[in-house]
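The following record pairs a protein chain with its ligand, S-adenosylmethionine.
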Amino acid sequence: MSRRGNLDVSPPIHRGMKDRLDKDLFKKSIPVLGVKVTPEKVHNIMKSEPLRSHVLDLPKVTKVLHAPDGQRIIVLRVSSESELSPETQEFLRSESAELVKHTVDLDYDYWSVEEILDAILPEELIAEAPRGYAGCGHIAHINLNKEYLPYKHIIGQLILDKIPTIKTVVNKTENIGNQFRVFPMELLAGEPNYEVTHHEQGCKFVFDFSKVYWNSRLGTEHERLVNLFTPNDVVADVFAGVGPFAIPASKRGSAVLANDLNPESFKYLQRNIEGNKVSRYARAFNEDGRVFIRKSVSLAYDRPFPSYIPPKSQSERKKEAKVQRHARGTNVPKPSSPENRAPPRRRITQYVMNLPDSAITFLDAFRGLLSPENVGKRDLSGVYDKASLPMVHCYCFTKEFEEDKAAADIRQRVEEKLGAPLDEKASFHHVRSVAPNKEMFCVSFRLSPEVVLAS
Ligand SMILES: C[S@@+](CC[C@H](N)C(=O)[O-])C[C@H]1O[C@@H](n2cnc3c(N)ncnc32)[C@H](O)[C@@H]1O
């Protein structure tokens, strides 16, 4: 029960309400006392020591009212005079303040999602009741356990009504997504509009939440990896989704080949590349991951990326404009752009593989990656160097919770697929606990000559 002083301000209980949220039933009138004073006295009396602690302090409820006779009423959190101490009563008399009756009316808009839910759910369901949602643009996404399903539309309507930025509420209906990691979902409340605009790492992502993979909980991991990359890198993102690694990496100057097999992800990936103005450094592909890995070296070699030019500061732009104005009409040669001087980027330096269920099973695609059978007659000498072959960042799940055991389990599965040992510098980063006995890790390692030149 929610109390303010002696007042019970919790919503009325309506257990058993299921299919439809009847907002009209959430009304409560609470009798209280008010102190009637002249407008000039309001401030001093409210702040005075004897009265201060008795003034009503409910969020969203006015504490000073205008009386029809021009006086003001300071609303108190007591319902009878006997709840005021003798000193307070004496103080009010000395100020010629009159005690009057007043009613505080609360309705549906007053209470929070949790307070109303607690008034509706059977008592045995309250402790474990869903207390939050994952937000993605204008969509709130919840994952209800089956005992809460009879209340799903009420829960959806509550979130919709109470959270101003939310326009659509969905429930994930199964835990098993399809090949593209897209989960079936049902609309609980709001508009059936699933195209969202979501921001991460200063980039804007547009995508259809019902047709592509997106997980806002991976934001920190996306950022961690992108921070490892530099403008010297050419990154091949094998399972790119709508671009949460690829777009921020290219915005920071890395060149990126981004691939996803889901045609919907590919469509939004292209749209996000354009929308974030990174087409110079990012290209989208729509291939199976294995095919993409095999082609990646040739893709970067045949159509190298221009070197990175950092955006000019305002003062640099002004200075350049001045030089150009000065040079106009004279024979002063135009300064050559830094792009013309720096070599183009054609060597892949990083592979990102975020498909944790099965990414490890794609690792054999790196065997013979740089072999003539895979790259044809292309001359890779001077491009790839045995000592600095590409890094691979491969996401995976393991049942092992302890870092040592998890690393041993992952190492064994990775080495089996690569057909070669990982070097001792390989690192194993714990990303998050997905479920009991399901830990997500990222293993990062450098490809070895033995693997990439295997026949
Ligand atoms: C777990 S999501 C990761 C997406 C994105 N990188 C992220 O971090 O949010 C895996 C992605 O792999 C794509 N995918 C699944 N199977 C694939 C395959 N065989 N080849 C290429 N992409 C695939 C899915 O469509 C999905 O977008």
